[in-house]
Amino acid sequence: MQPIISISALSKTYAGGFQALKGIDLDIRQGEIFALLGPNGAGKTTLIGTICGIVRPSAGRVRVGGHDIISEYRAARSMIGLVPQELTTDAFESVWGTVSFSRGLFGKAPNPAHIEKVLRELSLWDKRNNKIITLSGGMKRRLLIAKALSHEPQVLFLDEPTAGVDVELRRDMWALVRRLRESGVTVILTTHYIEEAEEMADRIGVINKGEIVLVEEKAELMRKLGKKQLTLHLDAPLAEIPGRLADYGLELAGGGGQLVYTYDDARGDRASILKLLEDLAAAGIAFKDLQTSQSSLEDIFVSLVKDSR
Amino acid sequence: MNWYAIRAIYHFEMARTRRTLLQSIVSPVISTSLYFVVFGAAIGSRIPQIGEVSYGAFLVPGLIMLSLLTQSVSNASFGIYFPRFSGTIYELLSAPVSYFEAVLAYVGAAATKSVIVGLIILATAALFVPFSIAHPFWMILFLLLTSVTFSLIGFIIGIWADNFEKLQLVPLLIITPLTFLGDSFYSIDMLPPFWQTVSLFNPVVYLVSGFRWSFYGIADVGVAVSLVMTLLFLAVAMAVVAWIFKTGYRLKN
Ligand SMILES: Nc1ncnc2c1ncn2[C@@H]1O[C@H](COP(=O)(O)OP(=O)(O)O)[C@@H](O)[C@H]1O
Ligand SMILES: [Mg+2]
Fold first, then answer.
1. Is-contact A246 A55, C-beta < 8 A?
2. Which of A61, A126, B111, B227 is most exposed, with minimal Cβ within 10 Å?
3. Residue B164 within a domain
């Protein structure tokens, strides 16, 4: 299937000369929830801004639904709803007025029934006649989502939707995103909370210093996470792994002084550890210490971000 | 054309005007009334007729122009500056709206408001001095052209300014002096020859002169020249706006 968003060789150098995006290649699949994970300053907002038309790309190309974002900006932008990172709203407009305004801005005929549905969905219906200035922070966040959904977009960008949001609202937000996906909307969210990506995403992309350093199915990532490692610190270094231990898929590390055994806890491989230890003893390999470790998404993230420094 | 977007922006801007009705409409009316009292009645009684026209009546077109210019510039500059300042401009930039449509909506709304203010001042003036309008069609045309031109200039200022001070600066340092020295309160014949020549470099002179001609058939410069100059300012303003959008100047990083 054709990707709903296709980004190729996209670069952005800001006026001051700072390169915020360095040749990004990325495809977003129709109907998925894609989490863009990265530390502050990685380029997440710049990437989203470029796709949405707020930041001008320096090089490269982006297509949304097959439409080039520059030469066919109308078709491309009509498909997109954007919820910005900052709570930027008018003050004296009413909730109803500002959501209707957004729909008009995106070239859609008035449809009060749809606006009502969106406002109810986001628990803002009771506030429809309120001025925006009277809303709480959480309500403003939901209002921005309502504005982004007012024109029935096929792609929704949520830039750090849960930054500084309380737990309850965060759960609501996650539930909403799932409902949107069920209705066929592709959702791209940025976050620097790993558990949020873990909880929500179908796929996860990691961005750091303007580069995409990893894109992976969440399920695949989680499978890797299920893996554990047993590291044995040997009394004497080994030059190679003895043939009788070949079945274990062992690896040597630390200049031969460490033997690393990777096993999948979920598959019940733990029982094989005993067997391994017996076989080691039989091969005359002694060790002075052992440790087990489990890599988390966080570890993967931290190591990726460190490696690409 | 994205007509729904044009309509949405236009309504938004007009709603802003309605929310600030007092400041938008009442204050220009009060200040113009004060001009009539001070210049028209108090000083005007000591100034002889200018041509066929009493000084009070002579003032009417100039005072309307004065308000028209300041209103157009301040409405349009604020209309586009504020979303930039508050960050809500992200929505316009991410919307399927062409630059032409955005200008049409913002400048259209600002110009509409100035025309309304101009007509209200015209009605107010009728309470102070009797006057006639010889060429109503031309009067409306000059009113519209001036409102649109100066709303475009306001739009440019609103994009150029990066703080509130600059937003006030141009109207204060350029527009207001040009208007006061631009033949609103006197005929340039009354100036020494040197200053008459200097006045011809003041664009406002042409606007006021043409506008006054549509009232009384008297003008400092020929009405054709006024019209050409007005259209020229309009074209220059449009060219600058087109350049701004083409380069994304100050709107997009
Ligand atoms: N307008 C700008 N001018 C210059 N540099 C900018 C601008 N906006 C962002 N940057 C820089 O680009 C980098 C990426 O920023 P951003 O996309 O906001 O990151 P993130 O959203 O991942 O936190 C940062 O180093 C930031 O300082
Ligand atoms: Mg950001």
1. no
2. A126
3. yes
Task: Look at B93 and A84 and tell me if their CB atoms are within 8 Å.
Answer: no
pLDDT of residue A198: 81
pTM over 0.90: no
What structural domains and CATH numbers belong to chain A? 5-223 (3.40.50.300), 227-295 (3.30.70)
Give yes or no for a contact between B73 and B153, defined as CB atoms under 8 angstroms apart.
Answer: yes
Interface check for B238 against chain A (CB to CB < 8 A): the answer is: no
Q: Chain A closest CA to B122's CA: distance in Å?
A: 31
Min Cα separation B46/chain A (Å): 49
Establish if B117 belongs to a structural domain: yes
* Each residue's pLDDT tens digit, A185-216: 999 999 877 778 888 899 999 999 999 988 98
Note the residue count of chain A.
309
Taking CA–CA distances from A12, the nearest residue in chain B reads B253
Residue B2, phi then psi, degrees to nearest 5? -90, 80
ipTM value of the model? 0.88
Range of the domain at B221: 3-247
**CA A176 – CA A185 distance, rounded (Å):** 11
The tens digit of pLDDT for each residue in A102-138 reads 999 999 999 999 999 999 999 999 999 999 999 988 8
DSSP-assigned beta bridge partners for residue A131? A94
Give the integer Cα–Cα distance in Å for B81 and B63. 27
What is the distance between the alpha carbons of residues A222 and A296, in angstroms, rounded to a whole number?
9
Q: Which among B5, B87, B91 has CB closest to A86? A: B87
Average pLDDT over residues A27-45: 93
pLDDT score of A296? 64
- Put simply, the answer to whether B92 touches A80 (Cβ < 8 Å) is no
Cβ atoms within 10 Å of A186's Cβ, excluding its own: 26
